[in-house]
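Structure tokens please, single chain.
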Amino acid sequence: MINDFSYFRAPITNTEPLSAFSLLDAYHFITGPIAKATTEHLRTLTGKAHSIFKQNSFDYCTFSGVFSSRRNGALLRHSNLVCFDFDHLPDVEATFQLLLKDKFFPTMLLFRSPSGDGLKWVISMERQFLSREKFFPLENQADYHPLFFKSVSYYLQNQYNLTTDKSGKDIARACFLPYDPDAYINEKILQ
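Here you go.
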């Protein structure tokens, strides 16, 4: 299982990837000091200044695959990873623990959003895709991605009353990489 994906330098208008990243690379980036000052400064801003600073200052990745440029038609290889974004949560830490304990979808990577009031939850769709592939052999990961996203979003809404940012169904969706020293990574990735 290869789960690499594209990594991009800020600003968000930069659509050319710098390199491929692994979940371990992303974890080290997020828990290390690289984005600490940027994240802390963002959390002091409000309104339009907050949005402009975030778009111009944070490096980002496309967890769902390796791209020649950041657009759906430029997907080179799907990573089997899908990132779910939860914004403006009333209790970030309780939701963090809830997602970690989910029995159906093991967490691969989980971290707090740049603003600090949301979460980014990265899970694998590989097991479900391989099961489905037995019945739909002509379907590929890129075709399955939005179906998986919609199914898991429905599950999260019904199981936990959690609403996901719908933009996650987009394979080329950018995810900003903030500082979160308490991010979680699945122990299997560390082995």
